[in-house]
Design goal:
Length: 307
Amino acid sequence: MRIGVDLGGTKIEAIALADDGRIVVRERVATPRDYHETVQAITRLVLAVEGAAGKHGTVGVGIPGTIVPATGLVKNANSTGLIGQPLGRDLERALERPVRIMNDANCFALSEAADGAGAGAEIVFGVILGTGVGGGIVVRGECLIGANLIAGEWGHNALPWVRPDELPGPSCYCGKQGCIEAWLSGPGFARDHERITGERRDAPAIAALARDGDPAAQQSLARYVERLGRALSSVINVIDPDVVVLGGGMSNVDGLAEAVQARLPEHVFSDVVVTRVVRNVHGDSSGVRGAAWLWPSGVFPSAARAH
């Protein structure tokens, strides 16, 4: 049995995944603010899932950051309390078994590549379009991590083929301006709508207005689609994936995948674009399912790579 844990900023979710991909047990708790309490909460969740399933399982954990192999410490975590902590070692000590840890965007991509919207594809690019913009790359069933542990982090590249009226671009928390994340996150979409219309609304409200025929909201969504088409085209020109799977809150906008697909030929360096842009299958469960799939994926040649 495979156990997956998704460590988020507000909640921790754990599942037991059957060999056929079915979720047989699901448990969740609020994320503690204290690091050591977080380790204890994950430990209790894993044991609770095992108790409910009646089986002992492997454990994979998705986190909003990554583990540096040389030190075993967390870096680049949105949940700043994790930064610099030996999460892998602490969990292995508490659970008395090897634990595999992966960035949550990679877990999303792995889940959709395993038995989701990208099942059967050789190269899958999993995209997160939420409060931030991230991504993961899966090649032949394995996550591509990269030498700097940032493979798939397309959100902190500049929006490509930028236009004069888009310069210098919105400020990004990373310290730069014009990042893809600053344009294409949910908050970025809302800021762009406010910049043009003067109306302050959140992303779901703007999408709903566009669906109902509001001209200003439709124009904001059209700008978003065109920019997303540019941003994804630049990724396709580099890694040439079979499938791009959209996830995160913005992926729930009706028709987004199809609209972006239609924009790809404008910028992809190919006379024919066969890459498919699709909405995810597993929704909010993709991250925790991908964490469970870390064991059969062969991402790590040994348990030592996990910490």
